[in-house]
Automatic annotation (TrEMBL):
PANTHER family: HYDROGENASE-1 SMALL CHAIN, NIFE / NIFESE HYDROGENASE SMALL SUBUNIT FAMILY MEMBER. Heterodimer of a large and a small subunit. It holds the Pfam family Oxidored_q6. GO terms for cellular component: [Ni-Fe] hydrogenase complex; ferredoxin hydrogenase complex; plasma membrane. It is found in: Cell membrane. Keywords: 3Fe-4S, Cell membrane, Iron, Iron-sulfur, Membrane, Metal-binding, Oxidoreductase. This is hydrogenase (acceptor). It comes from Bradyrhizobium diazoefficiens. It comes from the Bacteria.
Amino acid sequence: MGAATETFYSVIRRQGITRRSFHKFCSLTATSLGLGPLAASRIANALETKPRVPVIWMHGLECTCCSESFIRSAHPLVKDAVLSMISLDYDDTIMAAAGHQAEAILEETRAKHKGQYILAVEGNPPLNEGGMFCIDGGKPFVEKLKMMAEDAMAIIAWGACASWGCVQAAKPNPTQATPIDKVITNKPIIKVPGCPRSPK
Ligand code: SF4
């Protein structure tokens, strides 16, 4: 998982991309977006100076195939997305850290990047019996979700489980599986449904 203080430019330089290619990329981006002549240098400046956006990816009730789909992506390759485009600081399904070490990353992200990180949510929180049907890090997932949503810049509901509830929410829905927008109501939530969601 990458450090959120790194810029896009420093990451691609480390991967062997030359400065000339970087500026070519900025010019092509500006041209393809139909922007004016100054745009290329502004894009270059932003990529050189602004840290990549930290992303926290959490998992509730689900089958994890939306992650399976993501890690098999060819366009973009998952390594390009994770190592160059975003700073994926936490994903309890694929990260090496576990237990207290993993939980500490959440605290650190809230402290250092308050209001600046994106929260991606796969799966949904079950609300029945105080959320006891999905325990994550020693507490009900719904509590963890609310805690991380509080300081997030925006939230992505990744897949049908997070967006609509999917199969867990089918009648009689014994766990009271609930889409995340019914639990988090004070933040922008982008729904990206699909079962599984295609990363393209
Ligand atoms: S949306 Fe479908 S594929 Fe994705 S985690 Fe839920 S059940 Fe699995």
